[in-house]
Every structure is written in structure tokens, then in C-alpha cells.
Amino acid sequence: PQAANVNAATNTTNNNLRSTFTSVIVSALSAVALALAFPKPGQAWLAPLAAAGLFWAWQRLSWKRAFFAGWFAGTIFFAINFSWFTYTVGDYVGQFAFAVVLIPAIVEGLTFAASAVAARAAQRFAPALLAPIAAAAAFAVFEWLRSIGSLAVPFAQIGYSQTSTPLAVFAPYVGAFGVTFIVMLLGASIAQAMAARNPRALATTAVILAAAWLACYVAWPARHDRRQPIARVAAVQGNIAQTIKWNPQAFWPTVNTYVTQTRNLQPLRPQLVVLPETVIPTDLNADDPAGVRRLVRSEFAGLAKTLHTTLVVGSLEARQGKEYNALFTFDPNGTLASVYEKRQLVPFAESFPGERWFSWLPDVNLIGRFTAGRDDAVLSAGGVKFAPLICWESAFADLVHAQVARGAQFLVVATDDAWFGESSGTFQHAQIAQMRAIENGEWVLQSAATGISGIIAPDGSWIERSALDKPAVVAGSIGAPPGSIFAWLGPTPVGLALSAAYVFIIGFGLSRRRQR
I need a labelling partner for 40 at 20 to 30 A (CA). Which of 172, 196, 297, 300 fits? Predict the structure, then answer.
């Protein structure tokens, strides 16, 4: 009997190890599949299936093992999606290039770990019919939390991967985080059906989502948009690489390139012309002994007056001993009307959080020391109000919502995607711009240094779109914004509602357990 007990215990241990190993492998492979839903692969249909694999694996593990399996899967997912971080930057940091990807991936991977534990709790405590809802809500909440604040890295949100799929119809109502919830709900329902070998709950979820999708589609304002023009706009893409742009000898050739391209727009009579982020790599507002900056300001002021257009130029601003990444706006009279200062800086690239503690790191001199702006600016071109956004800012739904709430009628994204080259980062950023258009029911004009520049309609479709690594001028008309529920609501209420849903479902399940 004693030998039999030992053998039984050994077999149980081996079975547990095999089960754990299988779950970890499935979790890791699902993370890879989930990453493939994003550009460049762009296999968006994989997202719900990958989510199913994650939830199926996590729910078979103990709390601790679910945490570490989730962390491992999250690290893999973010390492793949953040691989473009090393483009250009890798040339500077050399042998430390791997850390530029791995460290953020490990940190962001903790959100998958937390989601795994939350999914495990939902399986144990929530009623069976509500467990997938709780698990999906928790995942979306942790995605929301990692996407806000000064240290946030809001790329690779699951909802972004669905901008060109039927699930994008939900975005005008619940935004990107809500679309993430829908994707994960499908995955959690599939996982539950697999584990219980009962497809009834999955069928119920599918029917409810199909009915909700139909209602959202019928009521979607952008679907009824007649695109009545309210302004003619243009974006200029100079296609000047980073290796050239910051070379002092390339300063005047860069200025002349953008002046020439912009002047060629005169026959089109645009009301607004946007040049990319930091196309003039100097403190444009300052003066120098040679009068170079004054001459450049005069050049752009004259250009705005000649074309009788509002001209937005990306450059740098020095003010009170601080430096800002900024957009300079010249009105049709040639007057410098405003300077917009970037509010959300890229951590450890444009700003150095915790400099006191991390100053010993190699190559810290490469990190920018910009100051963040504070104004949720809304500017005007020909009587039409627009929200200026500089590169990284377009990934923050709360920043965009603050400007839309102030009356912005369309969005302008000025970006220096030359940092990303032809990596997936350029395509991910363009996809984010599509989501901002769908969420807010507004047109988007994107001006990128080397691409992708273009005009995006409120339904997320590209009306005009440039190629990568080629000089281009994109011009066209934008219509009145059809608007959306999300434009009124904003991302915070969505995040709070999903948090409340999770807490309520778990609380309801615990209450039923106590009654029994």
C-alpha cells in the first residue's frame, strides 16, 4: 500500500507538471499569435483565437503559475510588438539594443500576469455564464491602466488590431478599450466552451454580440456621413531620413525641400497645410547672431501669406530655459499665431524619468530633456477648429478626447515616423490614427516625415495615403464630423465601467457561494 501511494503521488506530480508545461506553451504560442494580429503581419482574425488560447491556458493553472505564465506570455507579446524600438535607436546604443525592447516588454508583460490572475479568479468565483465577461473586462482594464500616465506605452492595444475588421463598429461607442473587451470576451467564451465541452455559452455570447453589432452598425453616425466638405487640407512629406535631418549641413536643404513642396500646393488653395514633427531641427522661436532662425521664420510666414493658408510647421521651442517639441502655426496673414507644445513625451527618449537614479546608465546623454506642454490646444484654420497632436500623443485616447471636448472638428497628427523606418512601428502608428478617427467620428490629417501621410475618414478608411520613403504631398477635402458616443463619453468612463463590471461579477459570485 505504501509503494502504491508513492506511485500515485508520483503520477499525480508528473501529470501536474505535464499540464503546467502544456499550459505555459499554449500561453506562449497564443501570445505570438496575438502579436501577429498587428502590423506588419496584420492577421487581425487571429486575435480572438489567440485570446482563447491564453484564457484556456491560464484557467488550468494555480494562482502563482497563472501569474508567471501570463508574465512570460506578455513579455513575448510585447517584445514582438516593440521590436521596432531598436530601429535607429539601436544604432546608438549598440550592444544594449536588446534592452531597449526587453525591459519595456518585461514591465508591460506584468499586465498580462495580472490579467491571468484575474481570469483565474473569475473562473473560480464568478457564475459560469458571467465568468468570460469578468475575464475579458479585467484584461481590458489592465490594458487601460497601462495606457495612461507619463510612463505609459499605449501601443499594441488589442482593439487597435481591429480597425479594419467588422469589430471596429463598436469603437464609436466604447473606444479601443471597449473593442479589446469584445475581442477578449470572444476568446474567453471560446476557452470556456473548450474547457466545459459545452458550446451553449459560446453560442449565447455570439448571438448577443451579433445583435449588438447590428444595432451599432445601423446607428453608426459615420455610416450615414455624406462627407460634406468643410475644409481643404494638405500634408507635406519631405522624406528626409534621420541620419540626414540632424546634420547641420542638411539644415538649409531640408528647409528648401519643404518650402518648395509647400509652394507647389498653391493651385490647390488648401486652407491648412501641415508639415511633420521637428522638420526644422532648431529652436525656431529663438534668435541667433547670424539671424538664421529669423530668416526661416520669415520664409514660412511669407509662404503662409502667399498661399493664403494656415501653415503648421514642426520644430523646437526654447522658452525660459526649457525646450519643447512644438508645432508653430502661421496664419494666412503671415503672423505666427500660436505655438503648440507636446503634452505627452516619450519616456526615456524625449524625457528622462528618474534621472537622479538612472544617470549611471550607458548612453544617457542620448535621452532628450524636453519639457511637457500643458495646454489641450484647439487651433483654427479657415474658421474650422482642429486638434494638434504630435506623434506619440495620438496613441493616448484621453489626450485626444480632451481636445474633442473643447470643440475640435478634426484631428491633425504631425509625426516623425522616420525614427521607425519601414518597421512595424510606422504601420502601427498609422493604425492608431485610424482608431482615433473611428472612436471620435472625426477626420484625421496625418503628416509624417517619411510616411505614412494621409487623410482618414471617420469610418477609418484612408481617403488619401502616401507611400513610404518617397517625397509626397497629400491633399484633399475633409467633411463635417459625424461625431460619436465615445467622443462625448471619453475613455475614462469606459475603463471605470469595465472595472465595476469585474468587481460586481466577482462580488455576486462570492455572495452566491456564501448563501450556498
Answer: 172
